[in-house]
Amino acid sequence: MGFSESASFEQALNIQEIIKNPLTSVPQRYIQLPYNEPSTLPDENLGQTLPTINLNRLIHGEDTQLELQKLNSACRDWGFFQLVGHGISPLVLKKLKDEVEGFFMLPLQDKMKYKIRPGDVEGYGTLIISDDKKLDWGDRLFMRVNPLSARKPYLLPQLPSSLRNILELYIEELQNLGMILLGLVGKVLKIEERELEVFEDGVHNLRMTYYPPCPQPELVMGLSAHSDAAGITILNQLNGVNGLQIKKNGVWIPVNVMSNALIINIGDIIEIMSNGAYKSVEHRATVNSEKERISMAMFFLPKFQSEIGPAVSLTNPEHPPLFKRIVVEKYVKDYFTHELNGKSYLERMRITEENVTKASI
Questions:
Q1: Are the C-beta atoms of residues 349 and 270 closer than 8 Å to each other?
Q2: Mind spelling out the 3-state secondary structure of the chain?
Q3: Residues 57-116: pLDDT tens digits?
Q4: Number of domains, the chain
Q5: 251-254/123-125 β-pairing
Q6: pTM (2 d.p.)
Q7: Looking at residue 345, what is its pLDDT?
Q8: What percent of the chain has a predicted confidence (pLDDT) above 70?
Q9: Is residue 300 part of a domain?
């Protein structure tokens, strides 16, 4: 899907190239903090506070109802949880880490074969939405991997064969996992199954990100604060370097990710479909001065032609819809034409008294 008729996208300079020459200070274009910095808790033991869900126990355990209650609590109170017992082999995760790391270590001219093309958002690099936009401290490869017909022929099919092969395996495993999780989320929310059919053979986007070390990490953001324009997101912190922070009660909480665990978070679309019962949560990525961080996220969205809105099974006169209805393709397109800024885009979807008044005139 192209975006030529909306924002005029450009590609930013590669961060890995910038730091080849030793830096003593950060280029002005990348300085974001401390101008927009709410308080951050110290990270000692905070990883233990993020709920952990064991999928194997949830599906095959003796007390699935108790496990479903844990899932409901994690989604309702945090919007994030660590997933263990997910069934993806540690050997697959290790191979994936090695291959993704190898991609980012390729010479720039090799990586630029996959560069973001004019009017698009897919490809290698960092998007510049506007001339005055502050840039994040990271290099990315972003691509649509489902439906198969939507894959760009110059991206995944042209990646180095060893990377492509492990990605295909991992994508298939994650697609199965994602649909299981969406089904479980729908179950605890009591959304009718037919209303979740929009996710079947839906849109799946994959983002690989390399966050290089930074001489002044306190002044930059690896990824600006935002919520995800997805149903759910599955994050794999590939090389074990922490950096994810989530916003809870106005405070940024660092997440200590367990070895071989995956991080699951609720996106805007589930907040809309649940009519606000589950909230998408602002999160961001920080960097450090010593070690690069490598992550991979997969975003699960409904089919582009489908329409999203509060689930009919969850709304009634006592619980009226809180969000407008919108076609998924338009929702995602509009999301990409705005800078990441917390949950500001989702708020545009909220039904207000002013909206209702205008509609009734």
A1: no
A2: CCCCCCCCCEECCCHHHHCCCCCCCCCHHHCCCCCCCCCECCCCCHHHCCCEEEHHHHHHCCCHHHHHHHHHHHHHHCCEEEEECCCCCHHHHHHHHHHHHHHHCCCHHHHHHHECCCCCCCEEECEECCCCCCCCCCEEEEEEEECHHHCCCCCHHHCCHHHHHHHHHHHHHHHHHHHHHHHHHHHHHCCCHHHHHHHCCCEEEEEEEEECCCCCHHHCCCEEEECCCCCEEEEEECCCCCCEEEEECCEEEECCCCCCCEEEEECHHHHHHCCCCCCCCCEEECCCCCCCEEEEEEEEECCCCCEECCCHHHCECCECCCECCEEHHHHHHHHHCCCCCECHHHHCCECCHHHHHHHHC
A3: 999 988 889 999 999 999 999 999 999 999 999 999 999 999 999 999 999 999 999 999
A4: 1
A5: unpaired
A6: 0.91
A7: 78
A8: 87
A9: yes
Which is it for strands 52-54 and 80-84: parallel, antiparallel or unpaired?
A: parallel
Asked, for residue 339, whether it belongs to a domain, the answer is: yes
- Distance separating alpha carbons of residues 285 and 220, to the nearest angstrom: 10
Residue scoring higher pLDDT (356 or 129)? 129
CB atoms within 10 A of CB 159: 19
1 domain residue, yes or no: no
> Does the pLDDT value for residue 132 go beyond 80?
no
What is the domain range of residue 198?
10-360
Residue 55 lies in a domain: yes
Q: How far is CA 125 from the centre of its chain?
A: 17
Whether the per-residue pLDDT at 9 is higher than 70: the answer is no
Q: Is the pLDDT of residue 170 over 60?
A: yes
In the prediction, which pLDDT does 20 show?
A: 86
pLDDT tens sequence across 253-305: 999 999 999 999 999 999 999 999 999 999 999 999 999 999 999 999 999 99
Structure tokens at 125: 């690099």
315-357 tens-digit pLDDT? 999 999 999 999 999 988 888 776 667 787 788 889 975 544 3
Residue 126 one-letter amino acid: T
Q: What is the CATH number of the domain that holds 182?
A: 2.60.120.330
